[in-house]
Design brief:
alpha/beta; Chorismate Mutase Domain, subunit A; DAHP1/KDSA; binds manganese (II) ion; 8 strands; elongated; binds phosphoenolpyruvate; 50% helix; 8-stranded parallel beta barrel; 2 domains; 11% strand; TIM Barrel
């Protein structure tokens, strides 16, 4: 997966806009007309729609390919659609669709991905892979490997968030760390954010898009519809072309570095401070573990249980209070203490087990 220079044909960031679903030729042409082509270089529309429940609108099907083609011919934008099996892949190639994406519900299935990869063998079209619905980095990367294995060179990833049982403020929880880990493992694969499916509403789109730029993503895919409330799918999250433009104008792009000398000196200095602080945090943690081990030995001698719920509660409460006065969030303190406590308990358990071995 070395090449992937395809992203460089676009001025950064790449913006993909267009409706969740193609509904009619008129709907497609109106959206394409209204979308600002200075910003949006790729027009998306789903024609085969994977829906959670049956008896919903499942896409217009292959007829929509004609409408996509018309958008390309009349407005000069590249066109994109979701493919979910080998037949979709073949049809999309026949109609010269420029960007094909594999949806979140397909990425989870290695058979589906393999079948699509084989149908697209050696294509020079751009193929994007949405993250699987479940938070599984290997499955996401595996899908790209299957495509790469079939000689497909123009690859990219779309981060659309991960599904959860209990609904949070997001439709699909972004779990940014997974996408950042993806970027670390496959730095040559362009990463596009899909704020529409992360948010599931219009209100959160700007913040999620800005967050993606803060993490230096290569582009955005945002669902756009002339009459969002009446859209046949994903009505709550679609925005008008005018609103899309407002968002794009207000977003700030980040660069990976700045050669400016003041920035360089400033960042070097601050990073040095971080390194020193990290090292002293680790020293302190090591000291804490030593004390925890001494407690373990004492408990062993007196045959006292490792886990003391009352004591643990007290530690948590004290830390949350202290953390609040230091500007540290309760959630962070909670995670930090859990990690420390788990390690202490594990080490104390080892001490106890050793006692049993001696018997
Ligand atoms: C879509 O892009 O309209 C779509 C169905 O997305 P996802 O695969 O992310 O659910
Ligand atoms: Mn959608």
């Amino acid at each position: 997966m070395e090449n992937n220079n395809w992203i460089n044909q676009f001025e950064k960031p790449l913006i993909i806009g267009g409706p969740c679903s193609a509904e009619s030729e008129k709907q497609m042409m109106t959206i394409a007309e209204e979308i600002d082509k200075d910003y949006v270089k790729v027009f998306r529309a789903g024609i085969w729609k994977p829906r959670t429940k049956p008896n919903c609108f499942e896409g217009v099907g292959a007829i929509g390919l004609n409408w996509l083609k018309k958008v390309k011919d009349e407005y000069g934008m590249m066109i994109a659609t979701e493919i979910a099996n080998a037949n979709h892949a073949k049809l999309a190639l026949e109609y010269d669709v420029d960007v094909l994406w594999i949806g979140a519900r397909s990425t989870v299935n290695p058979f589906t991905v393999q079948e699509i990869a084989e149908a697209l063998r050696d294509t020079d079209k751009i193929v994007l892979v949405k993250n699987p619905v479940n938070p599984d980095l290997d499955l996401w990367i595996g899908a790209l490997e299957r495509l790469s294995g079939q000689g497909i060179k123009n690859l990219g990833a779309i981060h659309r968030g991960f599904s959860t049982y209990k609904k949070t403020k997001y439709r699909n929880n972004p779990q940014w760390q997974i996408a950042l880990d993806f970027k670390n493992k496959l730095p040559n694969i362009p990463m596009i954010c899909d704020p529409s499916h992360i948010c599931g509403n219009r209100e959160g789109l700007f913040d999620v898009s800005q967050q993606a730029f803060n993490f230096e993503y290569d582009g955005l895919m945002i669902e756009t519809h002339c009459n969002p409330d009446e859209a046949w799918s994903d009505a709550a999250q679609q925005i008008t072309p005018a609103r899309l433009k407002e968002i794009l104008v207000d977003l700030e792009l980040r660069q990976s570095d700045d050669p400016d000398a003041i920035y360089k000196t400033g960042i070097d200095n601050l990073r040095h401070q971080i390194d020193e602080l990290d090292s002293s945090i680790l020293d302190t943690i090591a000291q804490r573990m030593k004390v925890a081990n001494a407690i373990g030995n004492l408990k062993k001698e007196h045959n006292v249980a490792v886990f003391q719920p009352e004591r643990w509660k007290q530690i948590q409460e004290n830390a949350v209070k202290a953390g609040a006065s230091l500007g540290l969030s309760e959630d962070f303190i909670d995670k930090l203490l859990q990690a420390l406590h788990q390690e202490s308990v594990a080490q104390q358990n080892n001490i106890m087990i050793k006692k049993e071995e001696k018997i």
